[in-house]
Amino acid sequence: MTGTLLFDPLLPWLVIWALAALAALFLALQVWRNLAGWPFRALAALALLLALANPSLQDEEREPLTDIVLMVIDESASQRISDRPDQTEAAAEAVRREVDALDMELREVRVGDGPDNTGSLVMGALTELMAEEPRARIAGAIVITDGQIHDAELAPDLPAPLHALITGAEEDWDRRLMVQNAPAFAILGEEVVLTLRIEDEGAVPDSIGGLAELRISIDGQDARSFMMPVGREFDLPLTLPHAGMNVIQFEVPEAEGEITDRNNAAVVQINGVRDRLRVLLVSGQPHPGQRTWRNLLKSDPSVDLVHFTILRPPDRQDGVPVTELSLIAFPTRELFLETLDEFDLVIFDRYRRRGILPMIYLDNVRAYVENGGALLMATGPDFASAASLYRTPLSEILPGRPTAQVIEQPFLPQISDLGQRHPVTTGLEDTHTPLPGSDAPWGRWLRQIDITEQSGQTVMTGVDGRPLLMLDRVGEGRVALLASDHAWLWDRGYEGGGPQLELLRRLAHWMMGEPELEEEALRAEADGQTIVITRQTLEDSAGDVTVTAPDGSEVVVELEESTPGRFTGEFTGPEIGLYRLREGDREAVIALGPAAPREFEETLASGALLEEPAAVLRGGVMRLEDGMPDIRTVSEGRNASGRGWIGVTPRAAYLTTDITVTPLLPAWLFLLLAAGLMLAGWIREGRQ
Question: Using CA atoms, how far apart are residues 185 and 651, in angstroms rounded to an integer?
């Protein structure tokens, strides 16, 4: 309990001071006249003025409050390497014991990796923790970290000392792989140059040489090794193997004694794009759909089209001068022997044997497909005749065999059950708007060539379920067989038309091996720290996916069918890095976070970043490998750290629980005192 003298004047202070001045004037007059009773009158005046000032005694009942120590524990990725987690927990437990022994309260918070690769935001966490407590009770703050924080300049204005306890060891060393330059896109077939650097930091042993092994793999396959210099940048030329996203992983094997291998790997994702799609279109007998094929291909600016139409066979005798037969000669040898491999896609549109292309040329087309080329056959009645291309070496790679029957009747193209799951035809109905009031998704065709399945998959059917569009893989290449020459009716809008352009685009991209149109594929996309897993398959079900995290732990993710042939699932990655996905014999890789995580840019423990903010607040920075310092109390304003100890400042905070205000003297006593004094002065003067 404490007492305080208060004044609660009965009149305004200005009036009281005026009365005091008037009393002083009268007293001065009495002194000048040498009246003997002036001291008694002065005391009487003082008593009256005190009565007007109304003095009171205020008593407070106070409840002392314990002081608070703030503790921030850094649990970012760089704090989870080597023996730092054990150091951190041991130090945190020691701080709890020491603070409890001082009869103080401890407030603690743990800080992980910041969002969006912002690193360790320790000072931000300390600021938030400080804002939750009364400033008058904060006796100090202790940060347990490796010193590699990324917001040291945001240290809060504490009313007490700030201390940092640094994990790690002085003899630590680390090897780090850095990607200095990597493009986001690259053109297929063209070389792209990446810039890398391997750096050794810390107390590097003398036994470590100046070269390091660098392993490179794309999509987790076919890793290759090179010996590269340490301590300087080097350029790495690279050619992407396929279109779409290419996940390129660079890895340096862990060296003996380094504190972590988490920064020995870097992941770069480069999207492979095609410069231009080179297409060779060979048209045979003229028909209404011939111009449609050409227009569709020419409408795409990314397609480089070479088109030849055979209008007149060599054996035709009609007396037309040779100079008027064509603008240029058909360069069969150049196209089918010398430059065939330069084309990405070859299309035969109603072409039949007419003595122009020898069998050796067509056999070269077969070899072209088996070696990775793509062939699209758009057939007509000629395919069912004796001059059919099926009666050539191409029969070895075609998925269907003609029966010599041509069906001349209207029919509605249908997507087969298998086609509902195949990326080329799945959801094709949704890409076209049918005629109002029509139950059919698109218009009918009027002719179909009857073929018998030999291999591959039938994704579209026609009359009585007969194969209409067949797809097949042959060797390293792909083949598509369209058993009708009336697809052009869709382009002309017959009975509402149909999605001919979308179908051709999908066919071309599937034959080019575009990843998004693979019928059997395991894909993964990153949405922040969430991995969206997609399993594309022609089967009715898909197995669970095993996800391997950067630290080697595995999680099994169940997939659910979202659309026919498409199974999806999600997994939230706990940390940044490379994740490997496996389902059966299919594998995929995906990187979460940046190519070079900020937490592993500097892994060696150091208190350099915390020395200045700690010094401003009279605190200290100490390494835990030298021993856990004692915690003592120090007076405010004094240095709060020394050899083997750190200090906190007692704040002596309290909570007022009750206040009592009592008048110093009752009013009647002041009045009686003043009257007695004035009477004493009168008697004194009467005797004089």
Answer: 60
199/668 Cα distance (integer angstroms) = 91
Going along the chain from its start, the domains and CATH numbers come out as 2-63+656-687 (no CATH), 68-168+605-652 (3.40.50), 173-261 (2.60.40), 277-315+325-511 (3.40.50.880), 519-592 (2.60.40.380)
Q: Which two tokens stand for residue 673?
A: 């005192």
CA distance 114 to 575: 11
Tell me the pLDDT tens digit for each residue of 143-202. Answer: 999 999 999 999 999 999 999 999 999 899 999 988 888 888 888 878 889 999 999 998
User: How many angstroms separate the Cα of 387 from the Cα of each of 51, 222, 230, 331?
Assistant: 132, 46, 66, 22
Q: How far apart are CA 587 and CA 460, in angstroms?
A: 30
- DSSP readout, 207-219? T--SEEEEEEEET
Place of tokens 């990843």: 515
What pTM was computed for the model? 0.65
Sheet holding 233-238, edge to edge: 173-181, 192-202, 233-238
Burial classification of residue 328, based on how many CB atoms lie within 10 Å of its CB (0-12 exposed, 13-18 middle, 19 or more buried): exposed
Q: Is 128 helix (H, G, I), strand (E, B) or coil?
A: helix
Query: What local confidence, expressed as pLDDT, does residue 310 receive?
Result: 67
Q: What's the token pair of residue 639? A: 């240095």
- Encoded tokens for 12: 């305004």
Q: What is the pLDDT of residue 544?
A: 92
The span from the CA of 271 to the CA of 460, in Å, is 32
Residues 6+ apart with CB under 8 A from 42: 23, 27
Question: Residue written as tokens 């029919």?
Answer: 411
The pair of structure tokens assigned to 140 is 């100090």
Assess contact for 7 and 650: CB atoms under 8 A.
no
Using 50, 70 and 90 to split pLDDT, how confident is the model at 56?
A: confident
What's the per-residue H, E or C state across 468-526?
EEEEEEECCEEEEEECCCCCHHHHCCHHHCCCHHHHHHHHHHHHCCCHHHCCCEEEEEE
DSSP class per residue in 180-195: EE--SEEETTS-EEEE
Helical H runs in 598-665?
A: 608-616
Confidence band, pLDDT 50/70/90 cuts, at residue 545 = very high
Mean pLDDT taken over the chain: 85
- Each residue's pLDDT tens digit, 23-32: 788 778 877 8
Q: Quick check: helix, strand or coil at residue 390?
A: helix
Query: pLDDT category, 409, cuts 50, 70, 90?
Result: very high
| Identity of the amino acid at 635 | S
Task: Give the span between the Cα atoms of 468 and 50, in whole angstroms.
Answer: 115
Rounded to whole angstroms, how far apart are CA atoms 335 and 280? 9
Q: Are 184 and 645 in contact (CB under 8 A)?
A: no
Interatomic CA distance for residues 2 and 19, integer angstroms: 33
* 318-340 average pLDDT score: 66
How far is the CA of 482 from the CAs of 204, 310, 383, in angstroms? 66, 20, 11
Q: What is the mean pLDDT of residues 102-121?
A: 88
DSSP three-state, residue 642: strand
The Cβ-side half-sphere exposure at 684, using a 13 Å CA radius, reads: 14
Rounded CA separation 602/203 (Å): 14
- pLDDT value, residue 480: 94
Indicate if the pLDDT at residue 647 is higher than 70: yes
- What pairs with residue 110 in β-bridges? 73
Query: Could you tell me the two tokens for 125?
Result: 């966490």
